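Journal club side-thread
Mid-discussion, someone asked how the predicted structure for our own chain would compare to the paper's figures. Pasting it here so we can look after the session.
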Amino acid sequence: MSSPELSHFARTYAAFTADGRDEMVDREGVIKPHYRKVIEQALSLDSEERDERVRRARQYLSEAGVFHRVYAPSDASEETREWPLGHPALLIEPAEWKTLSRGLIQRARFLEKLLADIYGHRRLVTDGILPSALIGRNPEFCHALSDQAKTGEPLIRFIAIELGRGPDGRWWVLGDRTQAPSGAGFALENRVANTKAFPDFLRALNIERLAPFFQRFREMLYDLAGPDRSRVGLLSPGPHNETYFEHTYLARYLGLLLLEGGDLVVHNDEAMVRTVSGFQPIRVLWRRLDSDFADPLELFGGSQIGTPGLLQAVRAGKLKLINAIGSSILETPGFLAFQQRMANALLGTDLELPTIATWWCGQDAERAYVEANRKSLQLANAFPSEAVWSGAVGMPSGSDFEKVQESRNIDLMRDGIHWVGREIAALSTTPILVDGKLEPRPVTLRVFLTRDDEGWHLMPGGFARVADQQDARVISMRQGGSSIDVWVPSESRVERPERPLTLLAGTGSRFQRKLPGALPARAADNLYWLGRYVERCETATRLLRAYGARMDELTEPGEFETQLLDLIGFLGIEVTPARPGRALLAYAQQAFDTASRVRDRFSPDAWRALHETVDLILGSYNDDDVELVGLASSVLTHLSGFAGLVHENMYQFTGWRFMQIGRSLERGFNTASAIASVIEPDKLADGALETILDLTDSRVTYRRRYSVDLTRETVLDLSVLDPLNPRSIAFQVNRIQALLYDLPNQNTAETLDMLTRRIARLAVRLQTADASELDHAFVVRVANDLGDISSLLTARYLLSSPGKVTASGSPE
């Protein structure tokens, strides 16, 4: 591209920017050197190719199921949205990144020492540097952490720091994230999406890679765990958390057990995972759960997502948490008012990165200053757990300051210790593609650091948030903002091998086949019910298709329509021929919601197949013109695709077995229940036998297997007793028996013996039965036996896991 064309583009874009505060153009409207190459490459693409590349990145994120949740405080509702990736990336030149890296690592060291002092000798308080009220009145102060601080081990090992570029051109610290910092997984997915859409850009600019940072972080976790590397997990609040996708993604990427509070028990001061094989010790947990909810025994007693006794396991030295409970105190906005004095005391020098100016209203002079300058300041809570506004975003300022004071009855004289005044951040802008054109938008940068025995290390990139409007105070993913990748060009050549760098062992490592890790009982329960829900959705779909086909064939349905509706009714389906999607949505949604709880165990292809099934049904939910048979056939195709991907691609160990048991048990139970409703001669209406064959997908098999017209005996023989028909009840029972044989076996568990005997007796009964002898009572008994087998399996593996659990939460 010629220089005049590039200059014209720069002048056009610069007309929209704030003077001198844009990442791409300088005060004279000239493109900065480190942006020049990427803009030249972007402008060399025609609009169609550029749009196609953006579409490719978004398609990857959609197919990978990258999403975030948005909550409405007014009605506590939640909405799942696709991940809003913007373009182009935020570029930071190497020389500036070196300076920034030095300041960030210094800040991480400062935060580490500050936390150790708060929970240790508290010299900052005794020396009058930090007001005691900011600790003593701080709801994030955790007394239980004092004992851990005495060990001298680092209390924080993974942190995030929020940055914004000020009018002076320097990066300013807006806040610290030490509780359970999010965004690293999303940053990684942003990079993967851009790698698929703009690989030539990354190569041409020699952009630093992110995988080595995660590799270092994982090695640190494994080193803490000791010889048994399988005893490392990620502790998540669960699937309703707004960043749950990131938890599942990082657990899968790093090879960690994805755990929730209910997966753990503490016995003899040792944290253990409830697995289908028994209680297994866990040594290291990457905590993505807020401190207050981690241990209802010592912290918030109303927590339903924590583990009683977790803090005691930490105090006993048998469990390490990343980060320590109580580390969230470092997020206290009131600390920002005293940072330089604290840094001088702890490090012997000033902090290299400036902090946004903050005045704590717990002091007379500072409170008076805030009151006098309310039109130019933002009002914020001094303590993190009291925060109503997140970070530097959306806090009241100017005229809003007085409105909020009045509406919330805030008296700074009386309640000053709870409030701070903060300088209004004048953030820089970055170019973002809006309707095919680049426009400037305010941007903040979140960077991530991890600590190992060698010290602190910075991710060469990060997670940038971009506002959807020019107001620099409104940068929120919840309010329409987007995220962009962060690119740091390297001064040395970045090797880009044929295959991406993974976290697997390198070629120099000795080959060793590892056994799969323990399967938590919760995950087993979800996989079991996922199998059942998917099969239940398939059964409902087949019955609806059979209903639609029969109704199309018969001019006067009469009794048969009533019988078909009764047959469908055992599943609780209310048929609305005009809108069949409504009858299927509940089952598809149950399957999808259950799969989301064990998402780390599925490939992106399998997840996409299930997601597309729900989308297909949702698309027809309010469609009056949709055709029942056509919709049902399409849904069956998608469900079959999911089943095939799981069967062919999912590792066939314990989790896979539970899912297959659930599917076989549901199929056998549904078939038995359906047959029981039509098996008596006086209920055998015209077309009932064809419907049974449709339900069991056995029409082709029947024609090959039997040379006679449809009869009651032949249909029952094929659908109930034939051990070679993958749709028959006998086949399901034999398969369940084989799968149960390979499940973890504890000979001391009497329930397991009952389960084995019950399935064996049912298998023998089906093997020795004759089709001519089958009656209503026989098939009902089979259905009841399958229900009992489900109850025994649940009691043995899924409810309280092996062994009994006492009221205190400890295994006997």
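Post-session note: The longest strand covers residues 437-452.
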